[in-house]
TrEMBL record:
Transmembrane segments: 84-105, 111-131, 274-298, 304-329, 833-853, 897-919, 1306-1326, 1338-1356, 1368-1386
NCBIfam families noted in UniProt: ATPase_P-type
Designated name of the protein: Cation-transporting P-type ATPase N-terminal domain-containing protein
Family to which the UniProt record says this protein belongs: Belongs to the cation transport ATPase (P-type) (TC 3.A.3) family.
UniProt-annotated stretches for the region Disordered: 682-701
Species of origin: Triparma strigata
InterPro entries assigned: ATPase_P-typ_cation-transptr_C, ATPase_P-typ_cation-transptr_N, ATPase_P-typ_cyto_dom_N, ATPase_P-typ_P_site, ATPase_P-typ_TM_dom_sf, ATPase_P-typ_transduc_dom_A_sf, ATPase_P-type_domA, Cation_transp_ATPase_P-type
Record-annotated Cation-transporting P-type ATPase N-terminal domain positions: 30-104
Annotated signal peptide: none
PROSITE patterns: ATPASE_E1_E2 (PS00154)
Keyword tags: ATP-binding, Cell membrane, Ion transport, Membrane, Nucleotide-binding, Translocase, Transmembrane, Transmembrane helix, Transport
Top-level taxon of the source organism: Eukaryota
Pfam families documented for this protein: Cation_ATPase, Cation_ATPase_C, Cation_ATPase_N, E1-E2_ATPase
Length: 1422
């Protein structure tokens, strides 16, 4: 695999599997065990002079810079490209490309719009995802921040400061308190008080003692090593650098973090699974119907367009945007709950979590050492009391007025060097300056305050910031808490009781001593330290303020209480004092810790008298004051949060670097452990002498809880052992290393868990990165852990994780509901195409309207599910099984497609048919009539059973009274039902002429451009250039096919019902052919009119006149889909005009096929002879088919062809009469009224009147003589201000086309109406809508928006024109409403039956519910 392909992975994987396993093993070092001389020799350095310049040069070549090597970075353009090329994005790209291809082939604007919108969707969501994910920080950059800028180094015998990246193994370094450790260092010499803060490395909250001695084989536990990235809070050292850069322990952790591949998120898996399913369905259906289209003879372009339509109908284009927006909204909501989401998909992952591996310090606990218990002497003896903390539930049981307790407080604050940061006591501005009130006084900050956590709970927080040792800070806060009733303000107590001598704490003595000059009292020795050391030095005890001799019983009681506190994970400190008499210790007394004669202090410390060199004063015993038990207490919100996890079936595992006893105590306190551990049973059996077989013997193998020390596990441990440990429902891992944390996560994942890991230290980063969802602490977390995490707890509160689990489950539920809602419209979107392909009905729904649903009306309702509240059982059901409980399941497909979707499809088709029927197109005539080449493009011819012919005003034709036997006249073109009339069947005339020839235009100076002012537009043969532009290679309908259709009893159909519709325009009956017809006819359109009239050219073609011999081409089947041949006309019927052609039968051969002709005369309403047309054929037989008119005759026939164009001056108007003598009206000289000319050659008529139309005329020299010389009949080029307009009756196909637009708009509206019912159904998967309620205001807005949008898109231009919708009647919205009501009632009934047939049981230990699915749930619960 190339480097490029390696970079394509979501997370980098460094090294092979063997190297990765080596990294997961615990740190192996020998530098801490080597003899110091041998180590220095191996490193070729000297403790006094350090490395030489030559050695530095050689070592630098070998080791390089002291930095952690970052991984190869991914270019930003490649990151952006990845966001645009996900599988779903690729599917949308493919759809867009198909749309553009369809547009290039067919020039259909809706394909262009669809392609543009699909590209826009991919680009917008890709940009959004890129911007969101670009917020992630560079993980390795945060490791670099752990390196100090400069460090003191000895080289060539000189001490100098240099940048830390130049350090090499063998360098001798000096590190002071407050410094960061620049590399892994072996301590050569150090101060007695040297401690290191290893929390970033091991998670230990307490500073760890360091010395020159190797105290443990484990390098992380030994005291003579300091590690890169840790801090020295106190003390100083001189050491030798043993490891640098990638070889340091921190470098190994960094490498382990980078070598850890992140798991694919559950939501990513689910979306991929869903996309595979939906793509398979979409592509399969598209290919099936593409093949089917070829089989039934659908033209390739139309076939491709239909395939695009089916794919688009199946693919929820808005899903990508919906998922992104839903996750973003949820992430924003979680941020309000103090959870920062870095990876959007992590939101849902948290909801899928079945196991939480949580760090203890700072997550389950407050990361603040607190005094939880105090022990002091009362009259009856020493008693343990609660101090206020979350460990004790906020209780305090001590008596502040008790003198013993007050003396204990005094000792804890005076024998203590911790202080409060002075600036934290005052209100500061942005410049860290104190703020004053109106009186000019500084505004103090209260000592304590309430802090609201992300889950809404509050904790008491100390506003004053303590500085010093964590344990001493805890005691300082307790004293300050009781300032009003105890010994007063801590700082004041120190001020009035000054220290005069101090013995600092050291690891040998394990105590700290202060001598204070007590105000109004004697000088007093105060001691604090390990309880066992303090007790051994005490001879007396203070009980209720009285000093009494300590008895063995009292001492034993204190020891037992201390052991009990330690077993509960508390760290105990003992306190003692001794008041000194002024006689023995006057003010001038010099206190010391030894002199030339004595090795001990010269004041009471309770030293053993037998010790050699002890000062006599030091043997005086102390007075025991009591104990303070400290702990990092659990957060108050954690126990209920853990309980909620148990109820939700989420296992919470504690993984900590702390001691097992402390870890177990906290785990029990927060509820992670709630029964006896394996170790507890073993200890109890041993304690009480139980053996196997005894009635009271407890079998450790039956323990449900286990505490596992890190020393007992490793990456090489057999899986069986891991399975045994992880099979326990209650688990604590203690004293774990970073490598072990990672292995714990991996084994949980191996068992099928979705694992969430929390942590705050560098040591946690590999496990955080490996986890399905990594969670870092916002306050106490290191930059490394934050960088590796998917989410950050801003308030470090574990309870926020549980809130996140609920939010994650909610988002999965809501995404499932949103998808179920979105895909239920697929069936009503697909079935129109199926009907169009299979049954050849007019297309009920266009691709652009499908897009309007998916990206318009459905978008806001789909997104509104992100705001839906949780159902009641969301945190009582177990975590979803990622293998069975998928985002999209078979049951969801069944429910959304085959149940709700089918009902919605029925609603759409019902509405579609109701609308078409209301405009005169009943359902039974739609089959095989819906081809895009015919419906709305070619006139429909029908057989009528009864009915009447009427004009546009509803006036009945007085002559033709039986539409079943006669074609309508030009003056009465509309058919009405009247009483009992109906349309029987309908056909289209055949297209059996194909123009193929080419040649010159018959008129000199004519333009081939129909939009040109010089376009003749009146006379062409299709074998000429203009004709070729129209017909070359296209199937056309000749006039003879119309005659044959009429001879079979089918007549042109213009339903009078369409005349009563809102889309109808009377101009359809006299349409200006130079204007393109566009939808409702009221929007100007400058497109090429060929596009519209390609199926009905203004004029007629005569095969008989153009091909005298009727020479056929090779027989070709003319059974175009949607264009059935009408019945064969009777043998006596002359299709060609008189005289009959000898081979007339070739137009209708006996075998049922149609012979195609390649020659036809184009007639558009004028005769060509007068214009010197070379062809001797005449158009008279087409213009006046029932009367043969000699060419020289000046009296035209009266039987005008109603299918032919006619002419008007200035603009098209009403066709008045078929009798030419009645048509010419003009003003008589000096008069305003209109007079008939009487006949055509009347010289008093100087000019035809405007908006008066007439049929074609036979032009003769006598006729043209009376017209103006520049009139339109005198040549094709005219500048006459009232030009001649060619007009045509397009009512048959314009009415059908507009009725289809109405029905498509109504189908679309029906889907929206039933989708509202579907939306209400999808609000819940289990509960009734009555229980869930309509509290989702965004969804309520979505419903309103959906209705508003569909109305806007349907009624308001120009959007309705772009979408192809029409201004449908209000009543057309109603047919879908019963279906919507049925959907809602059906679903509510289904859910009620489901709830009643699925019994629920509750686990008595965890509260988790288990539902036994009934048959309705098994088959319909999605």
């Amino acid at each position: 695999m190339t480097d490029y392909h390696m970079r394509q992975k979501k997370k980098e994987v460094v090294g092979d599997e063997e190297d990765a396993n080596a990294l997961k093993r615990n740190v192996e070092m020998t530098e801490h065990k080597e003899n110091i001389e041998e180590l220095l020799g191996r490193l070729k350095t000297n403790v006094d002079t350090g490395l030489t310049a030559e050695q530095v040069k050689v070592s630098f070549e070998q080791y390089g810079e002291n930095v952690i090597t970052p991984p190869p970075s991914t270019p930003e353009w490649l990151k952006f490209l990845r966001e645009l090329t996900g599988f779903f994005s690729l599917l949308l790209w493919a759809g867009a490309i198909l749309c553009f291809v369809g547009y290039a082939i067919e020039q259909a604007a809706d394909n262009l719009y669809l392609g543009i919108v699909l590209v826009t969707v991919v680009m917008v969501t890709g940009i959004f995802s890129y911007l969101q994910n670009s917020k992630s920080e560079n993980l390795m950059a945060s490791f670099a921040g752990m390196l100090p800028p400069k460090v003191k180094v000895v080289r060539d015998g000189a001490v100098d400061e240099m940048v830390a990246i130049k350090l090499l193994p063998g360098d001798i370094v000096f590190i002071e308190g407050g410094d960061l450790v620049p590399a892994d260092v072996r301590i050569l010499t150090c101060s007695d008080n040297l401690v290191v803060d290893n929390s970033a490395l091991t998670g230990e909250s307490e500073p760890q003692k360091r010395s020159v001695k190797p105290t443990n084989d484990d390098p992380l536990e030994t005291q003579n090593l300091c590690f890169f990235g840790t801090q020295v809070p106190e003390g100083s050292l001189k050491g030798v650098v043993v490891l640098t850069g990638d070889n340091t322990v921190m470098g190994r952790i960094a490498k382990l973090a980078m070598s850890t591949s992140s798991e694919q998120t559950p939501i990513n898996k689910e979306l991929h699974h869903f996309i595979i399913i939906i793509s398979a369905i979409a592509i399969s259906l598209g290919l099936i119907f593409l093949i089917l289209g070829f089989v039934i003879g659908t033209p390739i372009v139309e076939n491709l367009v239909f395939m695009i339509g089916i794919i688009v109908a199946n693919v929820p284009e808005g899903l990508l945007a919906t998922v992104t927006v839903c996750l973003t909204l949820t992430a924003k909501r979680m941020f309000n709950k103090k959870v920062l989401v870095k990876n959007l998909e992590g939101v849902e992952t948290l909801g899928s979590t079945s196991c939480i591996c949580s760090d203890k310090t700072g997550t389950l606990t407050q990361n603040i050492m607190t005094v939880a218990k105090v022990v002091y002497g009362e009259a009856s003896g020493s008693i343990t009391h609660d101090a206020p903390s979350s460990f004790t539930g906020g209780r305090k049981t001590y008596d502040v007025s008790d003198e013993s307790f007050r003396r204990l407080l005094r000792c804890s604050v005076l024998c203590n060097v911790a202080t409060f940061n002075e600036s934290s006591k005052w209100l500061l501005d942005d410049d860290e300056e104190k703020i004053t009130d109106a009186d000019g006084s500084f505004i103090p900050v209260p000592f304590e305050g309430q802090v609201v956590q992300g889950d809404g709970s509050t904790i008491t927080s100390v506003n004053w910031k303590p500085v010093g040792n964590a344990s001493e800070c805890a005691m300082l806060k307790l004293v300050q808490t009781e300032a009003s009733g105890g010994i007063g303000d801590a700082e004041e107590a120190r001020k009035f009781n000054p220290s005069i001598f101090v013995i600092p704490f050291n690891s040998k003595n394990k105590y700290q001593v202060h001598v204070h000059d007590i105000k109004d009292g004697p000088t007093t020795v105060l001691m604090k330290g390990a309880p066992e050391r303090i007790l051994d030095r005490c001879s007396h005890i203070l009980l209720s303020g009285r000093v009494v001799v300590m008895t063995e019983a009292e001492k034993q009681s204190i020891v037992e209480q201390q052991e009990e506190l330690s077993r509960n994970g508390l760290r105990c400190l003992g306190f003692a004092e001794r008041e000194l008499t002024t006689r023995e210790y006057p003010k001038s007394y010099k206190f010391n810790t030894g002199d030339e004669k004595y090795d001990t202090a010269n004041f009471p410390l309770g030293e053993d008298k037998k010790t050699e060199g002890v000062h006599p004063n030091a043997t005086v015993g102390l007075v025991f004051l009591g104990l303070m038990a400290l702990i990092d207490p659990p957060r108050p919100a954690v126990p209920p949060a853990v309980a909620k996890c148990k109820t939700a079936g989420v296992k919470v595992i504690m993984v900590t670097g702390d001691h097992p006893v402390t870890a177990q105590a906290i785990a029990e306190r927060v509820g992670i452990l709630w029964s006896k551990t394996r170790g507890d049973m073993e200890r109890d059996n041993e304690r009480f002498g139980r053996s196997p077989g005894d009635t009271d013997w407890e079998d450790p193998d039956s323990a449900r809880a286990i505490v596992v020390p890190g020393s007992t596990i490793s990456v090489d441990m057999p899986e069986e052992r891991w399975d045994f440990i992880l099979d326990h429902p209650q688990i604590v891992f203690a004293r774990t290393s970073p490598q072990q944390k990672l292995v714990i996560v991996e084994n949980n994942q191996r068992l099928g868990h979705i694992v969430a890991v929390t942590g705050d230290g560098v040591n946690d980063s590999p496990a955080i990165k490996k986890a399905d969802i990594g969670i870092a602490m916002g306050i106490s977390g290191s930059e490394v852990s934050k960088s590796a995490a998917d989410m950050i707890l801003v308030d470090d509160n574990f309870a926020s994780i549980v809130n996140g689990v609920e939010e994650g489950r909610l988002i999965f539920d809501n995404l499932k509901k949103s998808i179920a809602y979105t895909i239920q419209s697929n069936i009503p979107e697909i079935t129109p195409f199926l009907g169009f392909i299979i049954f050849a009905i007019p297309l009920p729904l266009t691709t652009i309207l499908i897009l309007a649903i998916d990206l318009g009306t459905d978008m806001i309702p789909a997104i509104s599910f992100a705001y839906e509240t949780a159902e009641a059982d969301i945190m009582t059901r177990p975590p979803r099984n990622s293998k069975t409980d998928r985002l999209v399941t078979r049951k969801m497909i069944n429910f959304s497609y085959l149940q709700i979707g089918l009902i919605q499809a029925f609603a759409g088709f019902f509405t579609y048919m109701v609308v078409l029927n209301s405009y005169g197109f009943p359902p039974w005539i739609l089959l095989n009539r819906g081809s895009a080449e015919f419906w709305g493009v070619q006139p429909l011819f029908c057989k009528f059973k009864g009915g009447i012919y009427v004009n546009q005003w509803g006036e009945i034709d007085p002559i033709l009274t039986d539409p079943s036997t006669s074609a309508p006249r030009a003056q009465y073109p509309l058919w009405a039902e009247s009483t009992g009339g109906y349309v029987d069947t309908c056909v289209y005339p055949l297209k059996n002429f194909i123009g193929t020839k080419t040649g010159g235009n018959v008129f000199s100076g004519c333009s081939n451009d129909v939009n040109s002012a010089t376009w003749c537009g009146r006379a062409n043969i299709y074998n000429q250039p203009n004709g070729a532009a129209f017909a070359d290679g296209h199937h056309q309908t000749p006039y003879e096919a119309i005659r044959a259709t009429e001879a079979a009893g089918y007549y042109r159909y213009i339903p009078f019902k369409s005349k009563t519709s809102p889309f109808w325009e009377d101009a359809f009956l006299y349409w200006d052919t130079t204007q393109s017809f566009f939808q409702t006819g009221n929007l100007p359109f400058d497109g090429n009119l060929r596009i519209f009239f390609s199926g009905a050219i203004p004029g007629l073609y005569s095969v008989c006149d153009g091909d005298t011999l009727l020479t056929p081409t090779a027989a070709e089947n003319a059974n175009f889909r949607g264009a059935e041949k009408p019945d064969r006309p009777p043998a006596s019927t002359s299709i060609c005009p008189t005289p009959p052609q000898p081979n007339n039968g070739l137009l209708w051969p006996a075998n049922g096929d149609t012979a195609f002709s390649q020659d036809a005369l184009y007639c558009n309403g004028l005769q060509f002879d007068a214009m010197n047309f070379a062809d001797t054929q005449s158009c008279e037989s087409v213009n006046y088919p029932d009367t043969a008119v000699p060419l020289a005759d000046t009296t035209p026939g009266s039987a005008f062809n109603p299918h032919q164009t006619f002419y008007c001056y200035e603009s098209c108007g009403r066709f008045v009469s078929a009798n030419i003598g009645d048509l010419f009206y003009c003003p008589k000289a000096g008069q305003s009224e209109m007079y008939s000319c009487g006949n055509f050659v009347d010289v008093t008529c100087s000019f035809p009147c405007a908006r008066v139309c007439y049929p074609p005329v036979s032009m003769s020299p006598a006729a043209t003589a009376v017209l103006p010389s520049n009139g339109p009949f005198n040549g094709p080029l005219t500048t006459d201000p009232t030009p001649l307009r060619q007009c045509m009756n397009i009512g048959a196909f314009a009415g059908a086309g507009q009725a289809l637009k109405q029905s498509q708009g109504a189908f679309w509206g029906a889907i929206v109406i039933v989708q509202i019912a579907g939306l209400l159904c999808m609000k819940t998967r289990w509960l009734s809508l009555r229980s869930q309620g309509m509290k989702n205001s965004f969804m309520n807005f979505g419903i309103f928006f959906e209705i508003l949008l569909v109305s806007w898109l349907a009624y308001f231009p120009p959007l309705n024109y772009a979408l192809g919708t029409a201004n449908i009647r209000l009543t057309m919205w109603f047919p879908a409403i019963p279906f919507a009501i049925f959907i809602f009632v059906y679903d509510e009934t289904r859910k009620a039956l489901m709830r009643s047939t699925s019994p629920v049981t509750v686990d008595k230990f965890t509260g988790q519910t288990t539902r036994k699915a009934g048959w309705i749930e098994r088959f319909t619960y999605y």
